[in-house]
Amino acid sequence: MKTRALLLCFAMGISLSVGCKQRDAAPAAGSASGKPTKDAKAGGAAKSKGAIGLSVLTLTNPFFKVIADTMRTEAAKHGYDVIVTSGEFDVARQQNHVKDFIVQKVAAIVLTPCDSKSIGPAIKEANDAGIPVFTADIACLSPESKVVCHIATDNYQGGREACKAIIEALGGKGKVAILDFPMVESVIMRTKGFRAELAEQNKKPDVDIQIVATLNGGGVKDVGYKAAEDLLQAHPEVQGIFAINDPSALGARAALEKAGKADQVVLVGFDGQPEGKQAIKDGKIYADPIQFPDQIGARTVEAIVKHFKGEELPKEILIPTALYRKADGMKDPELK
User: Residue 48: pLDDT band by 50, 70, 90 thresholds?
Assistant: First the structure.
């Protein structure tokens, strides 16, 4: 009887010990929630290696959704899941995303910062936790934080292309304004490129383009609309507007239509989102330096994989823009 009791206790002890180990074990490496990647579920060749934490500026802008979707697809090929979050222009929210990623022990963190300077302390926390940080589209401008590699559009070159487009549309002469969004590095580079190209072009005898105003267009339609309204009231003589992305350009277009000036003011955007390209085809926007967010997403994953293989990466990988005009829209099979 005593022997049976001892055997029973021994068996229960083993059961409890195993149970405790199971509860304390880390979740499956495919994601922070413990769910394996699609490849791992399907028994594919890619072995689950962990999760990549991604926090984008906003998911209301299709540009960032393409980056996120492409990263998910490409990361799965290499055995990584991607946890996607959105700061929605709120750097405090994005800082909390980074804290969550650290707690979840992600393999790497990718950010498109809501504020290029204020995101610095959060990146420093990830640095201290030993988690590599990458930035996509928007760079970090905080000197105390370390980013392995920045993958982005060549925004400076794109800004120069935007300037060429507005000079072309105005025949080399006119007064223009910029709808800016100076909190993020990518836009800072666009406006720098625009101004640098304008300074060079204005040295030519047949070019005389003057910037009469720079307003914060917020990078979204409603703020772009209000900024353009204010611009038209303060500078009714304006003949051209460079809006730093498609949402603010489309907001400006609505303001021009309301003011009855849609045919009097040339509008150049930036991005090449489907709605922006459609507006170019329809003659509502003159041109866009277009970006390739799918390439940004794919090259970001490629950089992460190379980093974990011990390969040396450049501090910055830049992808050139291409100027997209109405003629391109007329040939675009993806448009109506």
Answer: confident
